[in-house]
């Protein structure tokens, strides 16, 4: 009688893995263990613990070596130099009034709940633009109302869906100026309005609603490409003059500050000019919304990171995808949350960032500065854990 | 056990077990269902059947497979969670062993891939080791002969598990009124159940996970989903944190083992097996065959009636950070809920028609008195999932502008 060979069954492997987990746990403190939640992963990232998400064993401190402190005159932010910090982000919620469509509101609420349960809390939350779908006052008001519940301070950025019904009038009432800058723990942070357009509406006699609907589409042959615009670039240049080259800079912009895919307007026309203003800084990170994708790019010294949306995932463009991008594969059409999420960004004292995508239906994906700095050779992020649908 | 054996004899009349059972595709049976090293023979099934009812396999001689997978109770124990030796309550609701042969994985967290592997675990668990179970039966002359006839060997643990699995492959209960309806008998199910079937495939979204058709008769996707049942009573972060606290107190392996058996720790579900973040609190989609017989429902048996189950889904599950994104509020009306439930009661094998009727009546009465999971405001979108957590108590978000 042929006997079944003694193989390592799923059960055995399970027990082995479980044992390894518990062994591993004993080497960690309580806070690090909490990596089962996004909160914990953020906390642990701050400590330089790297995770292997697929078997949930903490892989030992790989990037824990303290970064050399930065010397030199750091201008206005000098006092606080050397601290690291974390901020969270929520982006591209595209809410309608709830009577019309509750789904996007629910997903924004979910993101707020995620961020509110982070422990420790982030220093601030960056809202990456497009809180409204069609810029309606009710949508913007509803968005503001929900964001009031965020425990950490909220920094707002504007997106084209917020802007083109009334050219930002209502948004600015609620949230203030669309471009501003501030210093935080040694890092100079700039928020831009990068969705300016050439006037295509006046000559055509379009109503504000028609203008908004035109811009809201993924592609159309009418609108121009987004711009930061000359006046704002002049403002930025002046703003940056105060800072020495070794001051870490983080720029928030709704559209990606590089040329990605023109037909879909994942494109900022004057991005090269803006990059020129940033090139002489040692360390620059640009965090953008708009593309609803995990997206990573590097141009010279500038690291670019696209945020996840809470509303829907866009497919990747057919060409021009930055080589460093870790792709989300096609989302599950039966799962309204797939391909969506929020996240956190850990900022090192040198201004470089490790970004954690908290995907609601999948394992988190971490894109570190080490990965970007090495042009994709080191610290390669885990692929998303689901097969493409 | 004697009573159960009598019922089993009636339910499973003499049939040539070496042949595929009528409703199962022969090709599938030969190539996928029956493993090459455990072909179906009459001797193996007979041995497995005897072992299924064998209490001596348990540490104190009180518990058999048939204790938790009771033939008279739809092959479950119809308890919230199962009772083991010494009256100790387990952590999870025991799933039915009916039709279990068609599932890709076994256990609610899918931690083993086959019935053979499944059969071993509940025995190892309370027993000091597998040898103890074999010792308990090996001097029995009957068993000696039966093992010899079935596998040509002395009683041993591997063959014991194989025999139980072979018997379980005879637990085929796929002849329900619904099957007759699918086969073209329009009147096999009521008009209400037909409406329920449409809702099942449409508005109620059941088929997203419970797709059921002739080639997938169990109505399962063989995947794992967090629908929030555990989140109702605890949050996962605390659970994980507490496990760590207990470990930090020392005690090594013993503590580790106690922790793994600790009730609430098991609520992490599939995550303990896969380690995938997205599997936290996720459990295997249960078969909906014979669902009328297998109350209470969910991995922890926390729902008494199918109306409770519908209420749970109608409200969009239980909100938690790991909730499956396919779970959304459904806006089903009361009559629509009734219709889906009526449909589900047509999935019970005809051999249990009487029992099915009785249970349906009892559940209906219970549901008329108490619907603990009903949340109409959530189901209709008047409150949104995550809204109470985020905005405090339910507010009319954006519905009542002050200006």
Word description of this protein:
- Helix content of chain A is 26%, strand content 18%.
- Chain A contains eleven helices and 16 strands.
- Chain A has helices at 10-26, 30-33, 38-46, 102-116, 137-147, 160-163, 169-175, 208-216, 230-241, 271-278, 369-373; strands spanning 50-52, 57-59, 85-90, 124-127, 154-156, 180-184, 187-191, 249-253, 259-261, 266-267, 284-288, 295-299, 302-306, 341-347, 353-359, 365-367.
- In chain A, the strands form four sheets. Chain A has a six-stranded mixed β-sheet with strand order 5-4-3-14-15-16.
- Chain A is globular and about 65 Å long.
- Chain B is an all-alpha fold.
- Chain B has helices at 2-11, 26-33, 42-52, 65-68, 115-124, 130-138, 141-151, 157-168, 177-182, 191-201, 207-210, 236-248, 252-261, 271-274, 306-314, 334-344, 353-369, 376-379, 387-391; strands at residues 224-225, 283-284.
- Chain B has a two-stranded antiparallel sheet.
- In chain B, helix 3 packs across helix 8 (157-168) and helix 5 packs across helix 8 (157-168).
- The chains are: A alpha/beta (389), B mainly alpha (403).
- Chains A and B meet through helix 1, helix 3, helix 4 and helix 5 of A and helix 5, helix 12, helix 13, helix 14 and helix 19 of B.
Largest interface: A-B, 64 and 54 residues
Main beta-sheet strand count, sense and barrel state of chain A: 6 strands, mixed
First-last Cα distance of chain A: 44 Å
Q: How many H/I helical runs of chain A?
A: 11
Which geometry of chain B do the CA atoms define?
globular
* Total number of beta strands of chain A: 16
Helix content of chain B: 40-55%
Poorly predicted runs of 5 or more residues of chain A: 28-40, 42-80
**Sheet with the most strands of chain B?**
2 strands, antiparallel
Main-sheet strand order of chain B equals: 1-2
How much helix is in the residues of chain A? 25-40%
Average pLDDT of chain B works out at 88
Order of helices and strands of chain B: HHHHHHHHHHHEHHHEHHHHH
Structural class of chain B: mainly alpha
């Amino acid at each position: 009688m042929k006997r079944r060979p003694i193989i390592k069954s799923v059960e055995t492997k399970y027990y082995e893995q479980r044992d390894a987990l518990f062994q591993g746990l004993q080497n960690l403190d309580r806070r690090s263990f909490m990596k089962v939640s996004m909160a914990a992963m953020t906390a642990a990232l701050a400590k330089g613990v790297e995770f292997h998400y697929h078997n949930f064993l903490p892989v030992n401190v790989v990037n824990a070596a303290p970064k050399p402190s930065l010397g030199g005159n750091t201008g206005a932010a000098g006092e606080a130099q050397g601290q690291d910090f974390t901020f969270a982000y929520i982006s591209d919620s595209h809410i309608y009034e709830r009577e019309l469509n509750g789904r996007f509101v629910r997903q924004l609420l979910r993101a707020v709940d995620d961020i509110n349960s982070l422990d420790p809390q982030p220093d601030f939350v960056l809202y990456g633009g497009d809180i409204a779908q069609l810029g309606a006052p009710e949508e913007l008001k509803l968005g503001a109302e929900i964001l009031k519940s965020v425990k950490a301070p909220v920094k707002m950025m504007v997106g084209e869906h917020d802007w083109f019904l009334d050219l930002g009038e209502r948004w600015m009432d609620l949230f203030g100026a669309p471009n501003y800058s501030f210093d935080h723990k040694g890092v100079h942070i700039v928020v831009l309005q990068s969705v300016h357009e050439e006037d295509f509406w006046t000559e055509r006699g379009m109503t504000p609603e028609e203008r908004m609907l035109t811009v809201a589409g993924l592609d159309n042959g009418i609108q121009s490409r987004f711009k930061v615009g000359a006046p704002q670039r002049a403002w930025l240049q002046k703003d940056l003059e105060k800072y020495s080259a070794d001051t870490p800079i983080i720029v928030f912009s709704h559209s990606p500050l590089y040329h990605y895919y023109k037909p879909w307007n994942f494109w900022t026309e004057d991005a090269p000019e803006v990059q020129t203003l940033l090139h002489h800084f040692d360390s620059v990170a640009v965090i953008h919304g708009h593309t609803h994708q995990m997206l990573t790019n590097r141009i010279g010294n500038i690291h670019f990171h696209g945020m996840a949306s809470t509303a829907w995932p866009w497919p990747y463009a057919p060409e021009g995808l930055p080589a460093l991008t870790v792709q989300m594969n096609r989302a599950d059409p039966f799962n309204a949350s797939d391909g969506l999420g929020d996240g956190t960004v850990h900022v090192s004292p040198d201004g470089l960032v490790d970004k954690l995508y908290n995907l609601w239906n999948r394992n988190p994906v971490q894109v570190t500065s080490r990965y970007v700095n090495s042009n994709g050779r080191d610290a390669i992020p885990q692929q998303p854990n689901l097969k493409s649908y | 056990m004697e009573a159960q054996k009598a019922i089993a004899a009636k339910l499973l009349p003499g049939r040539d077990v070496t042949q595929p059972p009528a409703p199962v595709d022969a090709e599938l049976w030969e190539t996928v269902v029956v493993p090459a090293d455990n072909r179906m023979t009459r001797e193996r099934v007979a041995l497995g059947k005897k072992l299924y009812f064998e209490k001596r396999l348990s540490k104190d001689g009180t518990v058999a497979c048939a204790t938790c997978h009771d033939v008279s109770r739809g092959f479950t124990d119809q308890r919230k969670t199962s009772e083991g030796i010494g009256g100790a309550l387990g952590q999870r609701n025991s799933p039915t062993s009916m039709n279990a042969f068609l599932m890709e994985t076994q256990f609610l967290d899918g931690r083993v891939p086959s019935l053979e592997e499944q059969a071993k675990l509940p025995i190892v668990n309370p027993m000091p080791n597998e040898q103890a179970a074999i010792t308990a039966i090996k001097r029995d002359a009957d068993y000696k002969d039966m093992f010899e006839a079935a596998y040509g060997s002395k009683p041993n643990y591997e063959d014991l598990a194989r025999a139980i699995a072979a018997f379980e492959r005879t637990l085929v209960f796929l002849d329900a009124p619904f099957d007759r309806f699918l086969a073209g008998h329009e009147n096999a199910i009521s008009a209400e159940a037909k409406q329920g079937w449409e809702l099942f495939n449409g508005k109620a979204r059941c088929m997203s996970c419970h797709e059921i058709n002739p080639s997938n008769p169990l109505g399962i996707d063989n995947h794992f989903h967090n629908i929030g049942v555990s989140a109702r009573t605890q949050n996962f972060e605390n659970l994980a944190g507490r496990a760590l606290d207990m470990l930090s107190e020392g005690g090594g392996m013993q503590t580790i083992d106690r922790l793994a058996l600790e009730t609430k720790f098991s609520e992490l579900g599939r995550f303990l097996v896969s380690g995938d973040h997205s599997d936290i609190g996720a459990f295997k989609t249960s078969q909906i065959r014979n669902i009328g017989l297998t109350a209470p429902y969910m991995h922890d048996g926390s729902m008494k009636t199918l109306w409770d189950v519908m209420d749970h889904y109608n409200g969009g599950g239980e909100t938690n950070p790991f909730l499956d994104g396919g779970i959304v509020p459904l806006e089903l009306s009361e009559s629509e809920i009734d219709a889906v439930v009526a449909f589900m009661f047509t999935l019970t094998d005809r051999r249990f028609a009487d029992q099915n009727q009785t249970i349906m009546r009892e559940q209906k009465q219970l549901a008329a008195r108490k619907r603990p999971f009903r949340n109409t405001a959530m189901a209709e979108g008047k409150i949104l999932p995550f809204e109470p957590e985020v905005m405090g108590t339910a507010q009319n978000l954006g519905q009542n502008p002050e200006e």
